[in-house]
Amino acid sequence: MPQTITIAAFVLGAVLLLTALLGGRFKIFGAEVSVTTGRLARAIAFVFSLFFISIGLMKFSETPPSESNSAPSTRTLPPIEPPPTEMQPAKLPQPAVQTLNISGLWRDGVGMNYYITQNGDSFTFTASNPYNGAASSGSGTIAQNQVISSFQTNLPSFGKGSGAVSADGQVMQGTFFDSVLGQYTLTLYKVN
């Protein structure tokens, strides 16, 4: 049994024992038992506390076998091979990294529509709000689900920001800095 489970069993047994003895209404290590228990619940807590404490004590008393008492190893080591004549860096296998596709129509909470076109790990976008005439355009990169972009608006202003796309590819959120508006957080929702 792993050591952490043994400790957890012992601690649970101790808390149940306190519940059985005090009937509830106590605080220990920041945890609070605020319910007063009846006689039957206290008796059940006492039985279970003995069970969990005994599990914890049995596992604490077990000692792992000492390495000095164990038999010497009869394993033989493979022969050492000479290094190759040309030293080349080892090529480690790289995990497959999947970059999300964010192409399509996205919308923020104030009615701005973002049309994103992605090509590999680069993207461009145009944005417009039909209600107030605000518009912007920009470009950026995406690596896995991390997005970095720069933009300019028709205020005129410019800025940059970074953020992340949710695992399902439906929500994008980031922090941006605009030369006129300052810093703000933006959340986009995929429309199609």
Structure description:
- The protein has 192 residues and is an alpha+beta fold.
- The protein has 2 domains: 3-61, no CATH class; 104-190, Avidin-like (Lipocalin, Beta Barrel).
- The protein has helices spanning 3-22, 39-61; strands at residues 24-28, 31-36, 104-107, 113-119, 122-128, 135-143, 146-153, 157-165, 171-178, 182-190.
- The strands form 2 sheets. The chain has an 8-stranded antiparallel β-barrel.
- Strand 7 (146-153) and strand 8 (157-165) form a beta hairpin.
- Helix 1 (3-22) packs antiparallel against helix 2 (39-61).
- The model has no long low-confidence stretch (mean pLDDT 81).
Task: Summarize this structure as a short list of keywords or feature phrases.
192 residues; Lipocalin; 2 domains; eight-stranded antiparallel beta barrel
Shape: flat
From the alpha carbons, calculate the radius of gyration and give it in angstroms: 31 Å
Give the helix level as a range of percent. 10-25%
Output the CATH topology of the largest domain. Answer: Lipocalin
- The CATH architecture of the largest domain comes to Beta Barrel
Quick structural gist:
The protein is of the alpha+beta class. It has helices at residues 3-22, 39-61, and strands spanning 24-28, 31-36, 104-107, 113-119, 122-128, 135-143, 146-153, 157-165, 171-178, 182-190.
Give the topology, please:
Elements: H1 3-22, E1 24-28, E2 31-36, H2 39-61, E3 104-107, E4 113-119, E5 122-128, E6 135-143, E7 146-153, E8 157-165, E9 171-178, E10 182-190
Antiparallel strand pairs: 1-2, 3-4, 3-10, 4-5, 5-6, 6-7, 7-8, 8-9, 9-10
Helix pairs in contact: 1-2
